[in-house]
Amino acid sequence: MAEENGASKQESPSLSILTQYIKDLSFENPGAPASLQKRDGQPEISINVNVNANPIGEDTYDVTLSLKAEGKSGEKSLFLCELVYGGVFRVANFPKEHMLPMLFIECPRLLFPFARQIVADATRNGGFPPLLVDPIDFAQMFQKRMAEEQARSKVQQTTN
Fold it and tell me: Considering the entire predicted model, what is its pTM?
């Protein structure tokens, strides 16, 4: 019971979403209404994803998930949907080595279902079938990003 006086009691790690928001949303349908007519075959869909995180206070971080989806038929653009969806997270009492994985894997994983729904609604409201973005492996994205940054820092060290 002596440990409960706060002297040696360690606070448990916690992750909580304080707020979520749309920072930027754009939908372009440059060929409408012709682009909405029946066509042969499925359009080519390309999707780019990016995650950023910035501290905004003690234990508080702004994490943004950027999705860019483009539909093309041959060289002709059918639609372009761009979304930057953010969340303010309180990330407290995690060991320092766990902070980047929390910010770049867990936080976007929590934001993704909401961003996915916004993209689906935007494409449907633009006259196309709803675009349901496949689940994203944020852990793999994070590992790739870390490997690229390590390679970049090695190149910089050898050129200096």
Answer: 0.84
